[in-house]
Amino acid sequence: MVLLQLESSNWTCYNCRVNLIEGLFQAVFDSIFRVRVEWPARWASYSGLRQGLEASREHILARIGESTIDYSNLEQLRHIIGIEKWGQRRLRVALGEPLLRDNHRDHIPFFLGQSGWVQLITEFKATREETILLLGVLEKARVDSVRIPHNNLGSLSVKGWLRYLLLHAEFESRKLRPIHEQVPNDW
After folding, report:
1. Is position 102 within any domain?
2. Which DSSP category does 98 fall into?
3. Which candidate, 8, 26, 77, 100, has a CA 20 to 30 Å from the CA of 171?
4. What is the mean predicted confidence (pLDDT) over 107-134?
C-alpha cells in the first residue's frame, strides 16, 4: 500500500513538472508573440492594416478553396471566425462598450457538415468585412492609446489587436488540409 502511494506521489510530481514546463513554455511563447504583434503595430497606419486585412482575406479564401471539406477543416475555420469575432468584441471596448470576460469559444459559429462549409465561408467573409469596417470606426474615433486586455497576451493596443487578428487568421488558415491530402473518415 505504501509503495502504491509512493508511486502515485512520484507520478503526481512528474505531472506537476510537466505542467510547469508547459506553462513556462506557453508564457515565453505568448511573450514573444506579443512583441511580434505590438512592435510592428506601433508604426502601422490604419490604411496599412486595412490593406493587410484585405490581402489576408484573399489568401485565406484561396486556402479555403483548396481545402478538403472535412470535420478538421470545419473546426479550424470555426476557430478562425470565433477568434475574429471575439477580437471585434474586444476592440469595441475602445469605443466605450463594456469589457466582457469572455473567450473566443463564446463566438464560434455552429455550422457543421458539407452545407456548413459554404455557410462558414460566407460567415468568414462577413466577419472579416466587419473587422475592416470596425477599423474605420476606430480610426475616426482616435483611440490609439487605448489598451484592451487579451486573455493570454496581456493588454494590446487597438492597432495591436488589429494586427493580432490578421496574424492569427493567416497562421491558423495554414492548418487547413488541402484537397490532395488523405481525408480521414471522421464524419
Report:
1. yes
2. P
3. 100
4. 89
What is this structure's pTM?
0.80
Let me know if residue 25 belongs to a domain.
yes
Q: Is residue 124 within 8 Å of 81, Cβ to Cβ?
A: yes
Whole-Å CA distances, 187 to 49, 70, 71: 38, 7, 6
Q: In which domain, by residue range, is 97 found?
A: 2-173
pLDDT single digits (tens) 59-77: 999 999 999 988 899 999 9
Q: In this structure, what CATH number is given to the domain that contains residue 146?
A: 1.20.120
The pLDDT value given to residue 179: 81
In angstroms, rounded to a whole number, what is the distance separating the alpha carbons of residues 11 and 88? 43
User: Which of 168, 138, 150 lies closest to 44, judged by CA?
Assistant: 138
Q: What are phi and psi of 67, to 5 degrees?
A: -100, 150
Arithmetic mean of pLDDT over the chain: 84
Question: Cα 131 to chain center, whole Å?
Answer: 13
Number of domains forming the structure of the chain: 1
Q: How far apart are CA 169 and CA 128, in angstroms?
A: 10
Q: How far apart are CA 103 and CA 140, in angstroms?
A: 27
Is 186 domain-assigned? no
Percent of the chain with pLDDT over 70: 75
Record the cell numbers describing residue 173, joined without a space: 488558415
